[in-house]
Amino acid sequence: MGEQRVAKWYFGGLSSCGAACCTHPLDLLKVHLQTQQVSTMGGGQMAVHIVRSQGLLALYNGLSASLLRQLTYSTTRFGIYEVAKQQLGDTSSGPLPFHKRVLLAGFAGACGGFVGTPGDMVNVRMQNDIKLPPKERRNYKHALDGLIRVTKEEGVSRLFRGASTATFRAVLMTIGQLSFYDQIKSLLISTPYFNDNLTCHFTSSLAAGAIATTMTQPVDVIKTRAMNASPGEFRNLWHIITYTARLGPLGFFKGYVPAFVRLGPHTILTFILFEQLRKNFGVLK
Question: If DSSP codes are grouped into helix, strand and coil, which group holds residue 95?
Fold first, then answer.
């Protein structure tokens, strides 16, 4: 079996940042598709339109905010989940039962979602900026500039606009990714066909990404609209829900394919990087 190592608390944040650098253009396309009320473009058409009108680097608009979000949101949720999982008995004596992993992932996701809300809001705004008329653009220089300007111009409370939906989404996302990844990985390793290697990590993370996308897409659409809304555009969360519902049930799954295309690779890269960090730099049991 060889030596067994467990992850350090910050490995999840580092691996998520690495994955975000690769998948950011897909995340940007997802935001653009979700914030158009009338479906006029698909993902490919939107990408071509952005590159032609703004240039290739426009696909990386808001990257600093995306990294800020991962450093807050993902570091918190991975850190809480991994540390608590190790403390509660997920060691050589046997893994935690699945229902306990789900509860633990839900708590970790709630904490991460709330902490990551300011970075997430600035991320959405920076990605959506290039589709606005020039005079309406916010033109944040980078993520920290966005945080400072929102605080000065709209107040500190505005940084946490959409925190309820962001937190709920993070609960579902963390359950779908972390707890299901661990469960699927354990099931695969228990068969004679898989070992704790890259193939197992890839298969487990792909399945976890699909589960997480399906669980979170309706909440993600609502969250994106809430964070991108102008002051006074929506009265409350229910107003956003009814506004989106005008498109019909599929309105809550707008951008599903780009979301999966983005979240699938992001989840795969995150867990592959995470497992490599664990295997090479983790703490011996």
Answer: coil
Segment (H or E) for 25 = helix 11-34
- Rounded (5°) CA angle 126-174-16: 50
The confidence score (pLDDT) of residue 1 equals 43
Token readout for 255 is 């951008």
Mean pLDDT of 44-59: 86
Distances (CA, A) of 163 to 90, 103, 104, 119, 267: 31, 20, 20, 11, 23
Report d(CA 259, CA 95) in Å as an integer: 31
**Percent of the chain scoring above 70 in pLDDT:** 95
CA angle 28, 33, 39 (to 5 degrees): 160
> What sign has the CA pseudo-torsion 267, 29, 161, 63?
positive
Task: Say what the pTM is.
Answer: 0.81
Q: How far apart are the first and last CA of the chain?
A: 13
Residue 19: what pLDDT? Answer: 95
Neighbours of 231 (CB within 10 A): 10
Q: Which residues pair with 6 in a beta bridge?
A: 283
